[in-house]
C-alpha cells in the first residue's frame, strides 16, 4: 500500500531561523495537501499541490511538489512562535487518503 | 455554513462501557473519514464512509469498533467495551469529492476519549 514518510519527526528552532519538512512517497501521488495542527487543536488545511514541480507561497511558507510527484516540501522562512505545531502532508485519491507521519515544530525565543 | 461538528468534545468512559462519537459533516459533503490520534503521535486512518456505505475500513480494529453513516443524521463511531488503550483523540473529516484530484478534507475539533 501507499507509504508516506515525513522527515524530520521533530525540529526545534530559534525564532527567526528557517524550517523545512519533507514528505516522501513510495508511489507517484496524484496530489498532496498540507495541514497544520496546533497543540491541542485539529488539523487545518493549508494548501493543495497537483502539478509536477508546482511551487506555491503563502507569506513565509513555501510549498513545493517534486518533478516526479513522489515528494513534497514545506519551507518556513524566519519562523515565529505562532508557527509552533505539527505539519502533516496528506495525500491519496478519493478512495484512499493517507496522512504523513507529521513533523512537530517547536520554536523558542 | 457550519464546519464539521463533532460531539461530544470530551468523553470519559469506564473500562467496559460503550463510547459513541458523533460527526456531522459540512453541508453538502457526503464523504466522512475517521482518524485516531494518540498523544504526541500522528493521525491514523480508521474508516472512510459515504452515505449508507462503508468504503474502506482497513484502519479500524476488527473487534469492538464499528462505524456508520446513515442516510439521515450524523456519522457514528462506536467503541464497545472500551479499554484504556482506546484513550485518544478521534477526529472526523468530511469532503465533497469532485474528482480524484481534489480531496481537500475539513476536520472537526475532535472528541477526546478518556477511559478510566
Strand content of chain B: over 45%
What is the CA-CA span between the terminal residues of chain B? Answer: 36 Å
How many beta-strand elements of chain B? 11
Task: Give me the Rg of chain B, rounded.
Answer: 14 Å
- Discrete helix count of chain B: 0
Unreliable sequence segments of chain B? none
Q: List low-confidence stretches of chain A.
A: none
Outline the biggest β-sheet of chain A.
Answer: 6 strands, mixed
What is the subunit organization of this protein? heterodimer
N-to-C order of helices and strands of chain B: EEEEEEEEEEE
Structural class of chain B: mainly beta
Order of helices and strands of chain A: EEEEEEEEEEE
Percent of residues of chain A in beta strands? over 45%
| Distance between the ends of chain A | 41 Å
Report the total helices of chain A: 0
* Radius of gyration of chain A, whole Å: 13 Å
As a percent range, the share of helical residues of chain A equals: under 10%
**Mean pLDDT figure of chain B:** 91
- Average pLDDT of chain A, rounded to a whole number, is 90
Word description of this protein:
The complex is a heterodimer of chains A (109) and B (116). Chain A starts with a strand and ends with a strand. In chain A, the strands form two sheets. In chain A, strands 2, 4, 5, 9, 10 and 11 form a six-stranded mixed beta sheet that branches. In chain A, strands 1-3-8-7-6 form a five-stranded antiparallel beta sheet, with no helix packed on it. Chain A has no helices and eleven strands. The radius of gyration of chain A is 13 Å and the shape is globular. By secondary structure, chain A is mainly β. Chain B has 116 residues and is mainly beta. In chain B, the strands form two sheets. In chain B, strands 2, 4, 5, 6, 9, 10 and 11 form a seven-stranded mixed beta sheet that branches. In chain B, strands 1-3-8-7 form a four-stranded antiparallel beta sheet, with no helix packed on it. The radius of gyration of chain B is 14 Å and the shape is globular. The chains are: A mainly beta (109), B mainly beta (116). Chains A and B meet through strand 5, strand 9 and strand 10 of A and strand 4, strand 5 and strand 10 of B.
